[in-house]
Amino acid sequence: MNLANRITLVRIFLVPVVMFFLLVKYEFGILSIGQFSITYNEIIAALFFILAASTDGLDGYIARKRKIVTNLGKFLDPLADKLLISAALISLVEMQRLEAWIAIVIISREFAVTGLRMVAAAEGHVIAASALGKVKTWVQIIAIVPLMIRNFPFEYVGFPFSTIASWVMVVITIYSGYDYFAKNRQVISYT
Protein backbone atom coordinates (compact mmCIF):
# COMPACT_ATOMS: atom_id res chain seq x y z
CA MET A 1 0.00 0.00 0.00
CA ASN A 2 1.44 3.36 -1.01
CA LEU A 3 1.87 6.47 1.17
CA ALA A 4 -1.16 8.32 -0.27
CA ASN A 5 -3.49 5.41 0.53
CA ARG A 6 -2.02 5.13 4.04
CA ILE A 7 -2.78 8.80 4.66
CA THR A 8 -6.36 8.22 3.48
CA LEU A 9 -6.66 5.26 5.84
CA VAL A 10 -5.47 7.43 8.72
CA ARG A 11 -8.35 9.81 7.93
CA ILE A 12 -10.79 6.89 8.07
CA PHE A 13 -9.32 5.57 11.35
CA LEU A 14 -9.61 9.05 12.91
CA VAL A 15 -13.40 9.06 12.39
CA PRO A 16 -14.20 6.87 15.44
CA VAL A 17 -11.64 8.82 17.49
CA VAL A 18 -13.45 12.08 16.72
CA MET A 19 -16.82 10.49 17.53
CA PHE A 20 -15.50 9.01 20.78
CA PHE A 21 -14.34 12.37 22.12
CA LEU A 22 -17.53 14.11 20.99
CA LEU A 23 -19.96 11.55 22.37
CA VAL A 24 -18.26 10.03 25.43
CA LYS A 25 -20.14 10.95 28.60
CA TYR A 26 -17.00 11.22 30.72
CA GLU A 27 -15.47 14.71 30.73
CA PHE A 28 -11.68 14.91 30.76
CA GLY A 29 -11.88 18.45 32.13
CA ILE A 30 -13.42 21.84 31.48
CA LEU A 31 -11.78 25.01 30.22
CA SER A 32 -13.56 28.13 31.50
CA ILE A 33 -13.11 31.65 30.19
CA GLY A 34 -15.39 34.02 32.07
CA GLN A 35 -18.89 32.55 31.78
CA PHE A 36 -17.96 30.50 28.73
CA SER A 37 -16.83 26.91 29.19
CA ILE A 38 -15.78 24.12 26.87
CA THR A 39 -14.80 20.55 27.67
CA TYR A 40 -11.40 19.14 26.84
CA ASN A 41 -13.31 16.36 25.04
CA GLU A 42 -14.65 18.91 22.56
CA ILE A 43 -11.23 20.47 22.06
CA ILE A 44 -9.59 17.06 21.51
CA ALA A 45 -12.37 16.01 19.10
CA ALA A 46 -11.98 19.25 17.13
CA LEU A 47 -8.19 18.82 16.95
CA PHE A 48 -8.52 15.24 15.66
CA PHE A 49 -11.19 16.41 13.20
CA ILE A 50 -8.88 19.18 11.94
CA LEU A 51 -6.00 16.69 11.66
CA ALA A 52 -8.17 14.26 9.68
CA ALA A 53 -9.57 17.02 7.46
CA SER A 54 -6.09 18.39 6.77
CA THR A 55 -5.11 15.08 5.20
CA ASP A 56 -7.80 15.66 2.56
CA GLY A 57 -5.90 16.91 -0.43
CA LEU A 58 -2.53 15.81 0.93
CA ASP A 59 -3.15 12.20 -0.08
CA GLY A 60 -4.26 13.23 -3.58
CA TYR A 61 -1.34 15.61 -3.97
CA ILE A 62 1.15 12.90 -3.00
CA ALA A 63 -0.51 10.36 -5.30
CA ARG A 64 -0.39 12.71 -8.30
CA LYS A 65 3.12 14.04 -7.61
CA ARG A 66 4.61 10.55 -7.18
CA LYS A 67 2.43 9.09 -9.93
CA ILE A 68 0.99 6.49 -7.58
CA VAL A 69 -2.73 7.08 -8.22
CA THR A 70 -4.54 3.78 -7.65
CA ASN A 71 -8.10 2.52 -7.96
CA LEU A 72 -8.01 1.85 -4.21
CA GLY A 73 -7.12 5.50 -3.62
CA LYS A 74 -9.88 6.69 -5.97
CA PHE A 75 -12.32 4.62 -3.91
CA LEU A 76 -10.99 5.38 -0.41
CA ASP A 77 -10.48 9.16 -0.72
CA PRO A 78 -14.12 10.20 -1.30
CA LEU A 79 -15.26 7.50 1.13
CA ALA A 80 -13.00 8.93 3.84
CA ASP A 81 -14.36 12.44 3.24
CA LYS A 82 -17.97 11.27 3.42
CA LEU A 83 -17.36 9.20 6.56
CA LEU A 84 -15.63 12.06 8.35
CA ILE A 85 -18.23 14.70 7.49
CA SER A 86 -21.24 12.40 8.02
CA ALA A 87 -19.97 11.11 11.37
CA ALA A 88 -19.33 14.66 12.58
CA LEU A 89 -22.76 15.87 11.47
CA ILE A 90 -24.57 12.93 13.07
CA SER A 91 -22.60 13.42 16.29
CA LEU A 92 -23.51 17.12 16.32
CA VAL A 93 -27.19 16.25 15.88
CA GLU A 94 -26.90 13.81 18.81
CA MET A 95 -25.32 16.60 20.87
CA GLN A 96 -28.20 18.93 19.84
CA ARG A 97 -25.82 21.45 18.25
CA LEU A 98 -27.08 20.95 14.72
CA GLU A 99 -30.60 20.61 13.39
CA ALA A 100 -31.25 17.13 12.03
CA TRP A 101 -32.62 18.48 8.75
CA ILE A 102 -29.26 20.12 8.00
CA ALA A 103 -27.44 16.81 8.44
CA ILE A 104 -30.06 15.04 6.32
CA VAL A 105 -29.75 17.58 3.47
CA ILE A 106 -25.95 17.37 3.46
CA ILE A 107 -25.76 13.57 3.70
CA SER A 108 -28.51 13.20 1.07
CA ARG A 109 -26.50 15.37 -1.32
CA GLU A 110 -23.52 13.06 -0.82
CA PHE A 111 -25.63 9.97 -1.58
CA ALA A 112 -27.15 11.65 -4.65
CA VAL A 113 -23.80 12.69 -6.14
CA THR A 114 -22.29 9.28 -5.35
CA GLY A 115 -25.27 7.67 -7.12
CA LEU A 116 -24.75 9.93 -10.13
CA ARG A 117 -21.09 8.91 -10.25
CA MET A 118 -22.05 5.23 -10.05
CA VAL A 119 -24.50 5.58 -12.95
CA ALA A 120 -21.83 7.42 -14.97
CA ALA A 121 -19.23 4.76 -14.15
CA ALA A 122 -21.60 2.02 -15.29
CA GLU A 123 -21.80 3.86 -18.63
CA GLY A 124 -18.01 4.18 -18.82
CA HIS A 125 -17.84 7.85 -17.81
CA VAL A 126 -15.90 9.39 -14.94
CA ILE A 127 -17.24 12.40 -13.08
CA ALA A 128 -14.25 14.11 -11.53
CA ALA A 129 -14.48 16.19 -8.39
CA SER A 130 -15.29 19.77 -9.28
CA ALA A 131 -13.72 22.88 -7.81
CA LEU A 132 -17.11 23.70 -6.29
CA GLY A 133 -17.23 20.23 -4.71
CA LYS A 134 -13.86 20.87 -3.09
CA VAL A 135 -15.01 24.28 -1.84
CA LYS A 136 -18.10 22.55 -0.43
CA THR A 137 -15.93 20.14 1.56
CA TRP A 138 -13.84 22.95 3.05
CA VAL A 139 -16.93 25.02 3.89
CA GLN A 140 -18.34 21.98 5.69
CA ILE A 141 -15.11 21.56 7.66
CA ILE A 142 -15.04 25.26 8.58
CA ALA A 143 -18.68 25.07 9.73
CA ILE A 144 -18.29 21.85 11.72
CA VAL A 145 -15.31 22.87 13.87
CA PRO A 146 -17.03 25.77 15.70
CA LEU A 147 -20.09 23.58 16.22
CA MET A 148 -17.84 21.04 17.95
CA ILE A 149 -16.31 23.65 20.25
CA ARG A 150 -19.49 25.58 21.11
CA ASN A 151 -18.74 28.46 18.75
CA PHE A 152 -15.49 29.28 20.55
CA PRO A 153 -13.99 31.91 20.43
CA PHE A 154 -16.92 33.66 18.73
CA GLU A 155 -19.36 32.82 21.53
CA TYR A 156 -17.13 34.70 23.94
CA VAL A 157 -17.80 37.92 22.02
CA GLY A 158 -21.42 37.09 21.14
CA PHE A 159 -20.95 36.52 17.39
CA PRO A 160 -23.05 33.65 15.93
CA PHE A 161 -20.32 32.36 13.59
CA SER A 162 -21.38 28.70 13.85
CA THR A 163 -24.97 29.57 12.90
CA ILE A 164 -23.90 31.66 9.91
CA ALA A 165 -21.37 29.00 8.85
CA SER A 166 -24.07 26.30 9.10
CA TRP A 167 -26.33 28.22 6.72
CA VAL A 168 -23.47 28.84 4.29
CA MET A 169 -22.66 25.11 4.49
CA VAL A 170 -26.24 24.19 3.55
CA VAL A 171 -26.40 26.65 0.64
CA ILE A 172 -23.01 25.64 -0.82
CA THR A 173 -23.79 21.94 -0.36
CA ILE A 174 -27.14 22.21 -2.17
CA TYR A 175 -25.69 24.38 -4.93
CA SER A 176 -22.72 22.07 -5.52
CA GLY A 177 -25.09 19.10 -5.74
CA TYR A 178 -27.22 20.97 -8.26
CA ASP A 179 -24.05 21.86 -10.18
CA TYR A 180 -23.01 18.18 -10.46
CA PHE A 181 -26.42 17.18 -11.79
CA ALA A 182 -26.73 20.17 -14.15
CA LYS A 183 -23.32 19.54 -15.69
CA ASN A 184 -23.88 15.79 -15.99
CA ARG A 185 -27.58 15.57 -16.86
CA GLN A 186 -26.76 13.54 -19.97
CA VAL A 187 -25.71 10.69 -17.68
CA ILE A 188 -29.26 10.08 -16.51
CA SER A 189 -31.76 9.04 -19.13
CA TYR A 190 -35.36 10.01 -18.45
CA THR A 191 -36.80 7.88 -21.24
Helix % is: over 70%
Output the radius of gyration. Answer: 18 Å
- CATH topology, what is it called? Four Helix Bundle (Hemerythrin (Met), subunit A)
Low-confidence stretches: none
Q: What structural category do the secondary elements indicate?
A: mainly alpha
What multimeric state do the chains show? single chain
Largest sheet, strands/sense/barrel: 2 strands, antiparallel
Topology:
Blueprint: H1 3-23, E1 30-33, E2 36-39, H2 40-54, H3 58-65, H4 71-94, H5 100-122, H6 131-148, H7 154-157, H8 161-183
Helix pairs in contact: 1-2, 1-3, 1-4, 2-6, 4-5, 4-6, 5-8, 6-8
Describe this structure in words.
The longest helix is centred in the middle third of the chain and has 24 residues, at 71-94. The chain is built from 8 helices and 2 strands. A hairpin with a 2-residue loop joins strand 1 and strand 2 (36-39). Helix content is 71%, strand content 4%. It has a two-stranded antiparallel ribbon. It has a single domain (3-187), classed as Four Helix Bundle (Hemerythrin (Met), subunit A) (Up-down Bundle). The mean pLDDT is 91. Helix 1 packs antiparallel against helix 3 (58-65), helix 4 packs antiparallel against helix 5 and helix 6 packs antiparallel against helix 8 (161-183). The chain is mainly alpha-helical and 191 residues long.
